[in-house]
Amino acid sequence: MIRSVLIGLVAGMRAMTPLAAVSEAARRGTLPSDNGALPLLGHPLAAAGTKALAAGELWGDKLASAPDRIVPAGLAARLVTAGIAGAALAPRRQALLGAALGAGAATAAAYLTFGLRMRAMRRWGQTATGLVEDAVALGATRTIVGR
């Protein structure tokens, strides 16, 4: 269940990255055999679509017009994607708990990382801080989901 919490923490920073990684792992068949992943996650179109959305989010985050992650739509996206990813990384019989843990962790991390990012942006700017946050999110996701 720890992976469900950890993937939720990453979703607090980047909503789509954890979902894209879990979808790709489901497509490749590298999730544990007793996982709570929705069958649709492993479909090639789902994997390609979530990767495209994740790439768009990584790019869009550097724009001055990017909305804050703590606006209602941003929080809702994080709740949904972290819940799906958290369930996928949990044992099948505990998928609902994995979803709840992932969603809860994403909400907490969204507020925590928002505050950190705002302070960092005042010193280093939006692009530099966004790139650092991207690297943290991508590295953590890769470690959590595995290859």
The mean pLDDT is 95
The largest sheet, given as strand count, sense and whether it forms a barrel, is: none
Strand content: under 5%
**Topology, number of strands:** 0
**How many whole angstroms does the radius of gyration measure?**
14 Å
Distance between the termini: 18 Å
Q: Which residue ranges are poorly predicted, with pLDDT under 50 across at least 5 consecutive positions?
A: none
Task: Report the helical percentage.
Answer: over 70%
Query: What does the overall shape look like?
Result: globular
Helical segment count? 6
Class from secondary-structure proportions: mainly alpha
Q: Could you state the order of secondary-structure elements as H and E? A: HHHHHH
| Number of separate domains | 1
Give short descriptive properties of this protein.
single chain; 147 residues; mainly alpha; 6 helices; 0% strand; globular
Task: Please describe the topology of this protein.
Elements: H1 2-13, H2 16-28, H3 44-60, H4 72-89, H5 95-124, H6 126-145
Helix pairs in contact: 1-2, 1-4, 1-5, 1-6, 2-3, 2-4, 2-6, 4-5, 5-6
Describe this structure in words.
Residues 1-20 form the signal peptide. This is DUF4126 domain-containing protein. The chain crosses the membrane at residues 95-114. The protein has helices at residues 2-13, 16-28, 44-60, 72-89, 95-124, 126-145. The longest helix has 30 residues, at 95-124. It starts with a helix and ends with a helix. Helices cover 75% and strands 0% of the residues. The protein contains 6 helices and no strands. It has one domain. By secondary structure, it is mainly alpha-helical. The model has no long low-confidence stretch (mean pLDDT 95). The protein is globular and about 45 Å long.
